[in-house]
Amino acid sequence: RLAPVLASCALAMSGKNTRIIALFDVDGTLTEPRKVVSPETIEYLKSLREKICIGVVGGSDLTKQKEQLGDSPNLFDYCFSENGLLAYKDGQKIGETSIVSHLGEDNLKRIINWALRYIADLDIPVKRGTFVEFRQGMLNLSPIGRNCSRQERNDFEKFDLEHRIRQTMVAKMKEEFADLSLTYSIGGQISFDLFPTGWDKTFCLRYLPEADFDEIHFFGDKTFEGGNDYEIYTSQRTKGHSIEDADPMTTLKKLAKLFGIEAPEKLTPAGAH
Questions:
Q1: Which residues have C-beta within 8 Å of that of residue 228, sequence separation ≥ 6?
Q2: What pLDDT is stored for residue 5 in this prediction?
Q3: Beta-carbon neighbour count of residue 33 at 10 Å?
Q4: What is the pLDDT of residues 50-69, one digit of tens each?
Q5: pLDDT grade, residue 14 (50/70/90)?
Q6: How far is CA 96 from the centre of its chain?
Q7: Cα–chain-centroid distance for residue 177?
Q8: By mean pLDDT, which of 63-67, 168-172, 269-273 is the weakest?
Q9: Is 155 helix (H, G, I), strand (E, B) or coil?
Q10: Phi, psi for 8 (deg, rounded to 5)
Q11: Which of 27, 77, 160, 200 is catalytic?
């Protein structure tokens, strides 16, 4: 009985409810896809952090996350890159996990070789470079290649919506690698992730013990089945909030309703900051 009393005393003194955390996806939630966060969003997050815990969970590696958010390990109470396979709390690393030790080199080569052969035979309007990107806890596969320009990225997204290039490739890989217990997650505009089942964004929840949190709010845009926010959005441990228009302002308006911190009137357009 003493613990709740001490917790309520600590809350009264600090004004911050550390038993509630808001977790955010990056692209289409805190930023426009692959763009830099607005200064207004940063200021809003700082104000929110004074009231509750905040965390970020993205699929990209920490370098890419920092390109968009700045010093994310110190901006958030909890910072998870690659779905939480690299985990920080209060700016200090608290966990790291690797796909290499889990799958083994032979299985990794099997997957990469198959994917490169498949992409080589794909008939799509444009191909560039970096079709397979190896990350700490996943492979990111891109039929057009991650080196494409922003316009080529936008064009491929439209082409993919019509011709289902990524969905078809995922379906064939599920057949080919049925023995490996892998999960495939289509996110962003040009690629999809492949990782051991259970290594989706719910992986980060192991660093948020149930005994420590009364509410875990998750905000993300790819919350549909097959999207890379789906598993954590539908988890029994979270209260899911879908940013269906992939607009960071929508995220801030939802936060304003939930936590009473007024959202800014507008956000500085990406590219202007």
A1: 25, 59, 185, 186, 187, 193, 200, 201, 222
A2: 45
A3: 19
A4: 999 999 999 888 999 999 99
A5: low
A6: 16
A7: 24
A8: 269-273
A9: helix
A10: -70, -35
A11: 27
CB-neighbour burial class of residue 179 (10 A; exposed 0-12, middle 13-18, buried 19+): exposed
Please state, in angstroms and rounded to a whole number, the distance separating the CA atoms of residues 235 and 213: 15
**What is the rounded CA–CA span in Å between residue 142 and residue 166?**
8
Show Cβ contacts of residue 173 under 8 Å, excluding neighbours closer than 6 positions: 111, 114, 115, 182, 184, 194
Q: Mutual orientation of helices 39-49 and 248-259 as an angle, nearest 10°?
A: 20
Q: How does pLDDT run across 29-49, given as a tens digit for each residue?
A: 999 988 999 999 999 999 999
Residue 101's pLDDT is 86
3-state SS assignment for residue 268: coil
Mean pLDDT confidence for 231-244: 97
The number of CA neighbours under 13 Å toward the Cβ of 209 is 2
Query: Which of the residues 25, 193, 200, 221 is marked catalytic?
Result: 25
Q: How far is residue 237's CA from residue 58's CA, in Å, rounded to a whole number? A: 18
The three-state DSSP-derived secondary structure of 11-43 is: HHHHCCEEEEEEEECCECCCECCCCCCCHHHHH
Query: Crossing angle for the helix pair 165-176 and 105-120, nearest 10 degrees?
Result: 140
Tokens 């492949």 sit at which residue? 194
H/E stretch holding 47 reads helix 39-49
Annotated active-site residue 25? The verdict is: yes
Distances (CA, A) of 161 to 156, 164, 186: 8, 6, 12
Cα(86)–Cα(82) distance, integer angstroms: 6
* Catalytic residue flag (residue 245): no
